[in-house]
Amino acid sequence: MFMIVAPIFMVIFIGYGFGHLRPDDQSSDKLINNYVLYVALPALLFLAIAKADISELNQSGFIVATLAGIAAVYIAGTLIAKIMGFGMPQSAILSMGASYGTTGYMGVPILISVYGESAALPAAIATILHNIPTIMAVIVTYDILSNRNVGDKASVSKSVLNAIKTTVTNPLTVAVIAGLVFVFLGIPVPDFLTSFASFLGGAAGPTALFALGLGLARLNIRKHANREALKLVVPMVILKLVIQPAITFAIAYYLFGMQKTDTIWPIAAIVMAAQPIGAGVYVFSNKYGFKQEVISLSIIISLLIALITIPVILSLFPVLGAE
């Protein structure tokens, strides 16, 4: 299994090496990331959803297992943050670190590379399930609790609307919604659109992984690694890489019995839950000015550990399980 995923991680390392060779060329980093976020990944997710049969979307076990894993570690992250002396809204950033993974940039390419095109649909849905709840929770928490008029209903409504706007206008969400329109209205995807989206989406995996490596090259682990930072990093990494996939696995297999379905869906739920901490957490920590150095360190450490844990998790499931 390691040899199957090795090329995926090699692309990340190439991006990392390129970032170190061209340390001053950060404008190109933004262009590559924008291409992935606004063009390649949306094309891939749109096509995966739009070409699906409506019956394939009836995956209650997958949805519940995914959301339960996210909710459990988010709440656990909040409690741990409180024990360490961080109340709301600051604890929301640490909770996001414990529950928000690199699903789009890393999870999608891994699933499709290992299990083929049959993994595209569950990967697309999982990406949205992992993005929307966590992002909305952080935005609403900060907007409401940072507002002096906490009890003001207008402020609460405005915060919720702001969170909805942020998530709904995300390019990945837009792509999935567009795909769902095709599915629910029974609109066949034209051949030219299929070819166009396939051509763009084909670049999503390697480009996203390369961009991920570039981003890591810009983070300085030596600068931020210290005992105080690690006190926050270690719980986040354990919750993200161990507890979240374990909870997702338990609910998918023991509550819903998804191991009996012999499909890619339970595998996708667990693999996506096991992704390392996503760069989006740093975006929000930077936006709200809270523990940016800790989040940077947690992203790097979780990715390095994931290079071991993800192949181990994948080895537990047969490659033919997707067929």
Automatic annotation (TrEMBL):
Keywords: Cell membrane, Membrane, Transmembrane, Transmembrane helix, Transport. The lineage of its organism: Bacteria, Pseudomonadati, Pseudomonadota, Gammaproteobacteria, Enterobacterales. This is AEC family transporter. GO terms for biological process: transmembrane transport. InterPro entries: Mem_transp_PIN-like (IPR004776), Na+/solute_symporter_sf (IPR038770). The chain crosses the membrane at residues 6-23, 35-54, 60-81, 93-115, 121-145, 166-187, 193-217, 229-257, 263-285, 297-320. It is a multi-pass membrane protein. It comes from the Bacteria. One of its GO terms (cellular component) is plasma membrane. It is found in: Cell membrane. Gene3D superfamilies: 1.20.1530.20.
